[in-house]
Every structure is written in structure tokens, then in C-alpha cells.
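Example S7 (C-alpha cells).
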């Protein structure tokens, strides 16, 4: 990867990190447990529970992504960024541009998904 490409991806990672952190703070509120003692009626309670579950799932996905972004930024510092952590091959720039936190190359990702 060229240093221009690396700079582009670093900027992408830092922007993503800021966006996700801001978003996480916002969803933290709706992911809080529903107070079942509150007299809000059965239907709106089910609704509130579903919304809470959705918010929790989204929050967990965002947390995982933030972890991957942080470790990608760490790898940038060490100079290992852009190498697949599984096979050591260089990850395609196209893939990193689409998802700069990707820790593995496309073939390794496909192999991982095939196992699930
Ligand atoms: Zn790989």
C-alpha cells in the first residue's frame, strides 16, 4: 500500500471512530432495560421491549466494530496495517476502502464465514 492510500485509510478509520462513538452515546439511552413496573399498557410494553432488544443488538454490533477500528489504528501505528492477521497477505485496497477496519483478507473472510 502506498503512503497516500495509508493516509486515506487512516482518515477513514478516525472518522468512523468519531461517528461510532457519537452514535454509541446516543443509543446507550434506548438500550437501557425497560422498566416493567411502569404503567404503559401491554402493547406499548412489548413495543418498548422490542425496541430495546433492537437497540441492544445495534449497540453490540457498534461496539464490536469500534474494537476492530481501534485495533486497525493500533496496527497502523505498528506498521502492520493492511496485512491479513490470518494469512499475512496484503489486503486489497478496495476492500480496505469499503471497510477499513477489516482484519483479514477476502479469502480468509470467506473461509471464516463458510465455517459458520
Ligand atoms: Zn488472509
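Recovered sequence:
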Amino acid at each position: 500500500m502506498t503512503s497516500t492510500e495509508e493516509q486515506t485509510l487512516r482518515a477513514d478509520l478516525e472518522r468512523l471512530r468519531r461517528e461510532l462513538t457519537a452514535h454509541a452515546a446516543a443509543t446507550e439511552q434506548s438500550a437501557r432495560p425497560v422498566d416493567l413496573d411502569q404503567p404503559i399498557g401491554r402493547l406499548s410494553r412489548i413495543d418498548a421491549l422490542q425496541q430495546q432488544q433492537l437497540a441492544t443488538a445495534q449497540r453490540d454490533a457498534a461496539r464490536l466494530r469500534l474494537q476492530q477500528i481501534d485495533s486497525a489504528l493500533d496496527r497502523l501505528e505498528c506498521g502492520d496495517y493492511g496485512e491479513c492477521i490470518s494469512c499475512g497477505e496484503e489486503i486489497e485496497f478496495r476492500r480496505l476502502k469499503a471497510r477499513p477496519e477489516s482484519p483479514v483478507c477476502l479469502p480468509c473472510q470467506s473461509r471464516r464465514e463458510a465455517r459458520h
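Notes on this example. The chain has one domain: 3-115.
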